[in-house]
Model the fold of this input.
Amino acid sequence: MLRLSDIFRLPIADVKDLALELPQVTCLYPPARRTRVFWIRHVFSLLVVVPVAGLWRIAEVLHQACEAYQTRSRIFILLGDKLTVKFLAGWRLLQANAIFGGKFVVIKYGDVLIDPGPRRAWLQVKRFLQSLPPGAISAILCTHCHEEHIGNAAAASRFLGVPVYGTPCTLAEIRNPSRSPFYRRWYFGQPEPCGADAELHELPDRIKVEAGFLQVVESSGHCDGHVAFYCPEHKLLFSGDSYMGELLTSPTGDVNAAEWIKTLETYAELDIDMVLEGHGELHTANPGIPDIEGLVTRNIPRNMFQRKLAFLRWAKGAVAHGEQQGFDYQLIEACLFPPLAYWSLSTWARDESFRFYSWGGFSRTQFVRSLRANATTRPGCKPAGFPGRS
Done:
């Protein structure tokens, strides 16, 4: 049967199906004395791209809206009864789904809750927790400090009477949340300060769960203090926001590309069969996992990581070359994203709509900033007991 979302799917937008090689970084840049000619060509190329990219973006938003609508409020139970993925709903979250992509979920694995969702969805999360048998949750784990992941951490801890585990950066945000930008408060809600009755603990190297354990994997890059949780038994990685697609070219200002590259290199060395992202994408080629529209995508995790690594390394080299040539970052951004190149054409309308809706909080400019030679990460965000990563 043809699903509505199939009408709006754009296979060409999936970079893994494009057998194109990235060019030499030196080919991206004009001679130092011909920047005016470069800008004229760039503007005319944009005039060609805008109509195509606009239609592409409309189809992408319609597809994302259909998927969000189909999965709203649904619960999927996998791996016997060990893994539960609860999709959250609400018109503001559905609007964010359609515009930004990525759905909002709460994950239960064994007897732990992973990333209890945004404050805007607390009533839904509370009803889900109430539907569980007493003692079904022994701990709450948070991958990182962004409000759509920790918004309900303190409330869920009080409601269940269980501790919250996170890195120092994450726990600091739970105790005293930063004021979120307006657009994020609108969609996700503002987390409330943690009361004295909430029990907070720094993450150890491993977390015990029912009949096994989760290994804590340092995974900075998306933001400081980010971690993932790896289950050796099922070769399953709970990645939080440390993957987020192969062509993420409009991130937030928290991103550090050098750290993200290290994280992906770590992932590529792990024996991973399944990756469950923090926004409701389960990537696997395992035939034992059923096809679920809006949740399961058929990918081999190691190949995903290698493709994203290749793009990030190439982009970092391209920015470094522009810096060495003494170009300003506006020109570097334009050179990194030629309007007619596939990695630019397929993401231009999305990236520019992100820039518009987030007042520049998500943008290609932030991507270039993260690739700069002087991009830094705040210190002091490693989990307790973690060895340093070279």
About this structure: The CA atoms of residues 71 and 124 lie 14 Å apart.
